[in-house]
Write a structure and sequence with these properties.
By secondary structure, the chain is of the alpha+beta class. The strands form five sheets. A five-stranded antiparallel β-sheet has the order 2-1-5-4-3, with helices on both faces. About 25% of the residues are buried.
Length: about 725
C-alpha cells in the first residue's frame, strides 16, 4: 500500500470511530478534549504507517529493478529448497520460465542434478551456513556455471554466472601458451614502440637472449645497424594494421653472429579493434639458403657438364654427318658446300671454304651463313677472296699449314686483315666475335682452308672446338683428294668409253623410236586389210601410213649416220611448226593401239597456242613416245588426255592418263637422278643435252610433259 492510500484509510478510520464509538453516537462531533486528542493520535499513527509502507514499497521496487538489471542470475530459496524469487537472467540461464519455478523445489525442477556435484555443493553451503562458491559443468546444457551461495534467515540465495566462454578462452589461452612455449619457431611480442613484451624459448635459442634479458628492451637490439630502417617501416605498417608475411632479412644474435631469418609480423588488437602491439614469428632460414646456394651451385655444375656433354655430342654428330656427306659424293665442290651448310649454324654462324686450284690460285667454293642478311654481306666478300700473300686468316693458315685461332676478334684484328675501307666496312657489319682458319692437307699437300666464324658474344672457340675443326678439315681434305684422284681416273676412262657409250645409247634410243611409227603403219594397214575403215577415213589412214613410214625412213637415216652417233649430236631441222597438226599426227600414230585396248583419247587445246620454231618430226616423236607410254600403262577402258596450253612465253604439251602412275617422291627421286646424270654428262664434251619435266595433275598420274618456247618470242624450241 502506498502513502496516499494509507492516509485516506486513516482518515476514514477516524471518522468511523467518531461516528460509531465516541459519544454522542452516530454523530461526527467530538464532545471532549480527550476524544479530540485520541482522534489526532489515531490519524498521526495512520499517516506514519502509510509513510513507512510507501518507503518499503519503493525499496522493494528498487531492489527488484536492481536484481533484474544485473548480468548474473539471482534466485532465492526458502529453507525447503523452494524457489521464492527468480530474476529474468536466472530464468534465461536455467532455460525455464520464472513463473514455472517459483514455489517448486529445485529437485523437482531439475531432477537430473540429484546425486551430482551440484547437489553436493548446495547441501554443503546449507550445512555450513556460510557463503560458498563453486564451478560445475551442466552436461544437459553443455555449459559451465559459476555459483555463489549466500545463507539468509529464511533459506539462502544464489548468484549464477555462465562461464562457458571464459572457460573456452582460458583453454584456448592455455593451448596457445603451450604452442608458443613449445614452438620450434621464435615468437616475440612487442608494443607499437618496439618494446619486447613476450619472448618464447625458441626465441631464446635463436637469438641467444633469455626472456628476462629481452622483455622490456627494444626489439632493435637484434636488428643490424644497417637495417634499422626496416624496423621503422615494420612499425609504421603495423600502426596501419597491416600484416607482414615472409619477410626475409638478417638479424643479430647475442654474440654478434648474423643469422638469416624469415619474419611474419601480425598486429594485435584490443576489444575495440585498435592496434596495441604485434606478434612476430621468426624462422631461421640459414640452412635453407645454404641448401639453395648449394643446389644452385650443383645445378650450374650440372648445366655446365650437360652443356659440355651436349657440345661433345653435337661435335660428334656433326663429324659423323659430315663424314657421311663427304663419302656420299665424288664432286668436291658440291660436297664441300653441303659440309658448310651442315656446319652452320651448329658450329659456326658463317663458314667459308677456299680450295687451291691447279694453277696454285685460291678458289672460294663454299659460303654459308645463318641468315639472309649475312649471306648478302658474304657475297660481297667474293671480290676480297684471299691470295697466298693476303693477311687474311685463311691465307695465313695455308702458308703456315697450322690452325689460326682468334678467340676474340677485335677492331685491331679487322683493321689488320682488311684490304681497303670497303672491305673493313663489310667486316664491321658482319661483326665477327671469334674465328678459326684451319688448313686442309692431304698427301703432304695443302689443298684448301676452312674459315669458321661465330658472331654471338660469349661463344668463343676453345681448344675442343679447335680439335673438332681440325678433324673436320682432315676429313674434308681426304674427301677432296679422293674426289680429285677419282675424277682424274674417271676422265681417262670416260675418254676411252665416250664413243662406244654414245653409240650404244643412241642405238638403244633409236631402236625404241623405230617401234612407234612401225606400230602406226602396221595398225592402220591391218585395219585397212580387215575392212574396219570406211571410205571417208581411208585417206586419213593412208596419210598416217605414209607419214609414219617417212618418219621411220628418217630414223633409219639417223641410225646409218655413224658420225652423229660418235659425236653424240642430234640433227634438228628447225622451221615453223603447226603444233596442232603435229599433235594430230601423234594421236593418229597411237590410235590403233589405244582402240585395241578400248582407251578413250581426249585432247584439250588452248586456242591461244600459236606457232613455234622447231623440228616437227622430233616434236611428234617425243609426243607419240609419251602417248605410247600412256597406252602401255593405262588399264583397259581407261582414259588418256593430251593437253596443249600456253604458259608465259612457252607452250606446254602434257600427256596424262588414268593409270596407276608413280608416287610423287619416286618421281622426284627419278628427276634428281636424271639431273645428276645430266650434270655429269654436261662436264664431258660431245654428250647430248636435253631438258625434261614431269608433273602430276590432280587425280591423275602424269607420264610426262614437253615444254617449247614460243616462236613469237624469237626463241628456239626445246624438247625433252
Amino acid at each position: 500500500m502506498g502513502f496516499w492510500p494509507g492516509l485516506v484509510t486513516a482518515v476514514l478510520g477516524a471518522g468511523l470511530v467518531t461516528y460509531f464509538w465516541t459519544p454522542p453516537f452516530y454523530s461526527l462531533q467530538v464532545s471532549t478534549l480527550a476524544d479530540a486528542i485520541g482522534l489526532l493520535f489515531f490519524i498521526a499513527i495512520g499517516v506514519l504507517v502509510s509513510a513507512l509502507s510507501e518507503t518499503m514499497h519503493r525499496s522493494r521496487r528498487r531492489l527488484e529493478g536492481l536484481l533484474q538489471s544485473i548480468d548474473e542470475g539471482f534466485v532465492v530459496f526458502d529453507e525447503d529448497w523452494r524457489y521464492r524469487y527468480v530474476n529474468d537472467r536466472a530464468a534465461e540461464l536455467l532455460r525455464q520460465p520464472a513463473s514455472s519455478m517459483v514455489g517448486r523445489a529445485i529437485w523437482d525442477v531439475f531432477p537430473d542434478i540429484v546425486g551430482t556435484d551440484i547437489e553436493t555443493h548446495l547441501r554443503r553451503a546449507s550445512a555450513r551456513n556460510e557463503p560458498v562458491t563453486f564451478e560445475t559443468f551442466y552436461r544437459p546444457y553443455g555449459r559451465w556455471f559459476r555459483t555463489r551461495v549466500f545463507p539468509t534467515l529464511e533459506g539462502f540465495s544464489a548468484l549464477l554466472e555462465d562461464t562457458t566462454d571464459r572457460k573456452h578462452a582460458e583453454e584456448a589461452s592455455l593451448r596457445l601458451a603451450a604452442i608458443v612455449r613449445w614452438s620450434e619457431e621464435a615468437i616475440v611480442g612487442k608494443d607499437l614502440d618496439g618494446i619486447i613484451t613476450a619472448w618464447n624459448p625458441a626465441a631464446e635459442r635463436l637469438f641467444g637472449f633469455t626472456a628476462p634479458e629481452a622483455i622490456g628492451r627494444s626489439i632493435r637490439m637484434i636488428v643490424p645497424a644497417d637495417r634499422q630502417g626496416e624496423e621503422d617501416d615494420v612499425l609504421s605498417r603495423l600502426r596501419r594494421g597491416e600484416t607482414i608475411e615472409h619477410f626475409e632479412t638478417v638479424r643479430i644474435r647475442k654474440d654478434g653472429t648474423p643469422i638469416n631469418v624469415a619474419l611474419t609480423v601480425s598486429p594485435i588488437r584490443d576489444a575495440d579493434g585498435r592496434v596495441i602491439g604485434a606478434s612476430k614469428i621468426a624462422r631461421d632460414i640459414g640452412e635453407r639458403i645454404q641448401a639453395e646456394a648449394e643446389r644452385a651451385r650443383l645445378f650450374e655444375a650440372e648445366q655446365a657438364a650437360r652443356a659440355r656433354a651436349e657440345s661433345a655430342e653435337r661435335r660428334s654428330t656433326l663429324l659423323s654427318e659430315s663424314s657421311a656427306v663427304l663419302s656420299s659424293s665424288l664432286d668436291a665442290a658440291t660436297t664441300l658446300r653441303t659440309v658448310s651448310r651442315l656446319v652452320v649454324p651448329r658450329f659456326a654462324d658463317w663458314c667459308i671454304i677456299d680450295l687451291v686450284g691447279r694453277d696454285n690460285t685460291l678458289e672460294r667454293v663454299a659460303v654459308s651463313a645463318s641468315g639472309p642478311d649475312t649471306e648478302v654481306l658474304l657475297s660481297e666478300l667474293q671480290r676480297y677472296a684471299p691470295d697466298w700473300t693476303s693477311p687474311q686468316p685463311s691465307a695465313e693458315a695455308l702458308r703456315s699449314r697450322a690452325t689460326i685461332a682468334i678467340p676474340e676478334v677485335t677492331e685491331e684484328t679487322l683493321v689488320s686483315t682488311a684490304r681497303d675501307a670497303h672491305h673493313l666496312a663489310i667486316m664491321r657489319q658482319l661483326r665477327p666475335r671469334s674465328a678459326l682458319a684451319v688448313p686442309m692437307a692431304a698427301r703432304q699437300r695443302v689443298i684448301g682452308a676452312i674459315t669458321l666464324v661465330r658472331t654471338t658474344p660469349g661463344h668463343a672457340y676453345d681448344t675442343a672446338d679447335v680439335a673438332m675443326a681440325e678433324e673436320l678439315a682432315r676429313r674434308a681434305a681426304l674427301a677432296v683428294d679422293n674426289a680429285t684422284l677419282y675424277s682424274e681416273a674417271d676422265q681417262a676412262r670416260a675418254q676411252a668409253e665416250s664413243a662406244n657409250r654414245a653409240k650404244d645409247e643412241f642405238l638403244a634410243v633409236l631402236s625404241h623410236e623405230l617401234r612407234t611409227p612401225m606400230n602406226a603403219v602396221y595398225g592402220w594397214a591391218r585395219m585397212l586389210q580387215m575392212g574396219q575403215i570406211d571410205a571417208t577415213t581411208t585417206p586419213r589412214a593412208l596419210d598416217a601410213i605414209v607419214r609414219n613410214a617417212h618418219v621411220q625412213l628418217q630414223l633409219i637415216d639417223d641410225l646409218l649416220d655413224v658420225s652423229r652417233i660418235v659425236s653424240g649430236k642430234m640433227r634438228l631441222d628447225i622451221r615453223p611448226v603447226d603444233v596442232h597438226r603435229v599433235l594430230e599426227g601423234a594421236l593418229d600414230a597411237v590410235r590403233p593401239a589405244a582402240e585395241a585396248k578400248g582407251l578413250e583419247l581426249q585432247t584439250l587445246v588452248d586456242p591461244s597456242a600459236g606457232p613455234l620454231n622447231g623440228d616437227p618430226d622430233r616434236l611428234q616423236q617425243v609426243v607419240w613416245n609419251l602417248l605410247m607410254n600412256a597406252v602401255k600403262f593405262t588399264p583397259r577402258d581407261g582414259r588418256i588426255q593430251l593437253a596443249l596450253q600456253r604458259v608465259g612465253s612457252h607452250l606446254e604439251i602434257a600427256v596424262s592418263d588414268t593409270g596407276r602412275g608413280h608416287p610423287a617422291r619416286a618421281v622426284a627421286r627419278h628427276l634428281r637422278s636424271l639431273q645428276a646424270r645430266r650434270e655429269r654428262e654436261h662436264a664431258q664434251p660431245g654428250r647430248p643435252r636435253h631438258r625434261a619435266r614431269a608433273r602430276s595433275p590432280s587425280g591423275r598420274a602424269a607420264r610426262g610433259s614437253v615444254t617449247a618456247e614460243s616462236a613469237g618470242e624469237g626463241k628456239g624450241a626445246t624438247f625433252g
